[in-house]
């Protein structure tokens, strides 16, 4: 993890410099605040639609919300760097990306950990998250505003052979985002994981550079991956989440009233997106079948046993705070 540590040290300096800029920004608190948001998601993604509908209007009295989609402003996995260096105000980030800076965040990337969307919210709002959030603020200059439900991730393949167990994924080249946590998950599923930027996935599937990818059903629909694949294996291996992140310097430059409005707008947008995403997941299996894909559930228990054993035997578990898995399991009960 020496790379992550070095990266953290460099970014701490950037975050400190950004914090100094906030002193000048506070002096002009009456000016409109620029909130540029960078994401690799599409304009039709339920998260980004909800942010435009609920977050933008919620902060409109004092801020200009400026979303940038499809990685056009900053490419995937560089947004946190940009915020820490004072070059960006907001991003949709992931536990996998945060684990590159803070290894303990890898617990939230583990397969078959979160039970469902409601459990994600309970965990995020539980005191168990406080030290995680505080560390991100103190060492990276990033504030995590809310948790956003991305969906249950499934394996989506261009191959035709039926998959029932992890052994059936042996030799399958599965695209994963290019972080250690993501690549480990792909390996734990039994596949051969390869890193690839999100914007390259469609072409990769189309040309056969990769055999498959994993994402929630709405993402498969929005990015039209179903056009270049033949089956969806409903592994539900990760109840995936994102965090809506904002520059801590930008947050600190806000008045208490502006902070309250920003937090409320973030939570409202997350709730809208969550409900829509859940509804879409219930509908899309039939949509993909109508498009000619085979959509079926494998031996999920075989996958769960294989994935959990891989995590418990890995170096990731060494970085997890003692008792954190039990605390996560107890959240919301």
Automatic annotation (TrEMBL):
<feature type="signal peptide">
    <location>
        <begin position="1"/>
        <end position="29"/>
    </location>
</feature>
<dbReference type="GO" id="GO:0042597">
    <property type="term" value="C:periplasmic space"/>
</dbReference>
<keyword id="KW-0574">Periplasm</keyword>
<dbReference type="Pfam" id="PF03480">
    <property type="entry name" value="DctP"/>
</dbReference>
<dbReference type="InterPro" id="IPR006311">
    <property type="entry name" value="TAT_signal"/>
</dbReference>
<dbReference type="GO" id="GO:0055085">
    <property type="term" value="P:transmembrane transport"/>
</dbReference>
<protein>
    <submittedName>
        <fullName>TRAP-type C4-dicarboxylate transport system, substrate-binding protein</fullName>
    </submittedName>
</protein>
<dbReference type="InterPro" id="IPR018389">
    <property type="entry name" value="DctP_fam"/>
</dbReference>
<dbReference type="InterPro" id="IPR038404">
    <property type="entry name" value="TRAP_DctP_sf"/>
</dbReference>
<keyword id="KW-0732">Signal</keyword>
């Amino acid at each position: 993890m020496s790379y992550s540590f070095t990266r953290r040290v460099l970014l701490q300096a950037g975050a400190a410099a950004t914090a100094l800029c906030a002193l000048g920004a506070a002096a002009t608190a009456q000016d409109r605040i620029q909130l540029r948001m960078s994401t690799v998601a599409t304009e039709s993604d339920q998260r980004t639609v909800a942010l435009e509908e609920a977050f933008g209007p919620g902060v409109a009295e004092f801020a200009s919300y400026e979303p940038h989609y499809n990685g056009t402003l900053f490419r995937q996995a560089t947004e946190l760097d940009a915020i820490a260096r004072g070059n960006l105000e907001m991003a949709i980030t992931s536990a996998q990306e945060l684990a590159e800076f803070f290894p303990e965040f890898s617990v939230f990337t583990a397969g078959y950990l979160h039970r469902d969307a409601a459990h994600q919210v309970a965990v995020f709002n539980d005191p168990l998250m406080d030290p995680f959030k505080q560390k991100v603020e103190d060492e990276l200059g990033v504030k995590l505003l809310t948790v956003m439900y991305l969906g249950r991730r499934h394996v989506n393949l261009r191959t035709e052979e039926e998959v029932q167990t992890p052994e059936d994924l042996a030799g399958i080249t599965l695209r994963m985002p290019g972080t250690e946590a993501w690549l480990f998950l792909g390996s734990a599923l039994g596949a051969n994981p390869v890193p690839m930027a999100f914007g390259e996935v469609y072409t990769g599937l189309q040309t056969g550079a990769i055999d498959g990818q994993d994402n929630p059903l709405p993402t498969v629909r929005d990015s039209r991956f179903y056009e270049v694949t033949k089956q969806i294996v409903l592994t539900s291996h990760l109840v995936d989440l994102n965090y809506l992140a904002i520059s801590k310097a930008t947050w600190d430059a806000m008045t208490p009233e502006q902070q309250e409005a920003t937090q409320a707008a973030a939570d409202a947008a997350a709730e809208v997106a969550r409900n829509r995403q859940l509804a879409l997941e219930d509908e899309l299996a039939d949509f993909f079948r109508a498009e000619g894909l085979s959509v079926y559930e494998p031996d999920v228990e075989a996958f769960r046993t294989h994935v959990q054993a891989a995590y418990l035997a890995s170096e990731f578990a060494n970085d997890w705070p003692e008792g954190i898995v039990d605390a996560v399991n107890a959240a919301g009960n």
